[in-house]
Write a structure and sequence with these properties.
The protein is 20% helix and 30% strand. It is of the alpha+beta class and 337 residues long. Helix 1 packs across helix 6. It is globular. It starts with 8 loop residues before the first strand and ends with a strand.
């Protein structure tokens, strides 16, 4: 990896024991603030030598479940109880998080499509560069907490990207099970994941997990409980927290695989989306998934979109208005692990 050339300055000392909080200063000169900086909040808890866990949320600013879970973790975790280090970045794309948007209002940057970043690039590219080249190399595990945001809703799940059937995925699958979510899934390695935060961790050979914890622009108690239990249990899995701190699962974890294009259903026309199935349903190839209506010409027949394969409905679009190319659903298929 090249030597880091980040322009972002941390207010915390990653080598110091105890609890620290402060900001990553991303200097940003604008009309209203000539010498100003964007304050990206960060919390570091350390107690002696040991593994490091990096927890990130707010990569997309309209995904709130992870942000709430990490705010709670930042306040509740006692450094005296841990052995090692925990780094918490609860609002990674800070401008997007403050605005409640998937992308930054400054440069329209989608942080989770801009890794490995650029130290001399836009605001969002600089954030991506700092995370990949400064934070990820400190970590033994990275967990990037996502949900469906404003436009999608997921059955809450933990996930591993970069899945390859011909590779040894033992440590990834062990961490997936340790999270203790009722639902887990793996995503094939050929879906553009190299531009994501998890893709950056994989480049550094750091264990990476993600989540999709619900969405639809709000937080549910059920999703938050899954997130908080999972984060806690990953700390136990790493040995940062003792085994006595492990939180019991509600039951066994069902593990799915998300494969290629035939797992997804897209809007065939601009119009109004009528779902014909719901989250958690089992569907079969050829089954109608949705009808697209045209209120501007209500006498016109709707257009039907259908599933291309059998599977479990893992994700659903939420806004009723939709345009050609929007994702309406995606599926998962059971994976033996």
């Amino acid at each position: 990896m090249p030597t880091s050339r980040t322009r972002i300055i941390p207010e915390v000392d990653f080598a110091r024991n105890g609890r620290q909080h402060g900001f990553l200063r991303l200097f940003h000169s604008v009309h209203s603030s000539a010498y100003g900086f964007i304050p990206i909040p960060i919390v570091v808890l350390k107690n002696g030598d040991g593994p490091t866990a990096l927890f990130v949320s707010g990569t997309h600013g309209d995904e709130y479940e992870g942000q709430v879970a990490l705010c709670n973790l930042a306040k509740s975790l006692d450094p005296a109880r841990i052995q090692g280090r925990v780094i918490i970045l609860p609002a990674a794309n800070f401008p997007a998080a403050v605005a409640g948007r998937r992308t930054s209002p400054i440069d329209e940057g989608n942080l989770n499509r801009l890794f490995p970043g650029d130290p001399d690039g836009t605001v969002t590219q600089q954030i991506a560069y700092y995370i990949e080249h400064e934070l990820i190399p400190l970590a033994d595990l990275v967990c990037d907490l996502h949900s469906g945001g404003s436009s999608l809703m997921y059955v809450p799940a933990v996930l591993v990207g970069g899945y390859r059937r011909d590779a040894d995925m033992t440590r990834q699958l062990a961490a997936l099970q340790a999270f203790a979510s009722p639902l887990a899934y793996v995503v094939e390695a050929n879906q553009g994941g190299d531009r994501t935060l998890s893709g950056g961790a994989i480049r550094h050979d750091v264990l990476a997990l993600g989540t999709e914890l619900g969405g639809s622009g709000h937080v549910t108690r059920a999703a938050l409980r899954i997130a908080e239990r999972g984060v806690n249990n990953l700390l136990v899995h790493l040995g940062i927290l003792p085994d006595t701190a492990r939180l019991a699962p509600d039951g066994p974890t069902r593990t799915l695989e998300v494969g290629g294009a035939d797992y997804y259903v897209y809007t065939p026309e601009n119009g109004l989306f009528e779902p014909l199935v719901e989250l958690g349903d089992m569907v079969h190839a050829g089954q109608p998934a949705a009808r697209i209506h045209f209120p501007e010409t209500p006498w016109a027949d709707p257009v039907t979109a259908s599933f291309a394969r059998d599977g479990f409905v893992l994700c659903k679009r939420m806004p009723g208005r939709t345009m050609r190319g929007d994702c309406l659903f995606h599926l998962g298929t059971d994976l033996a692990v």
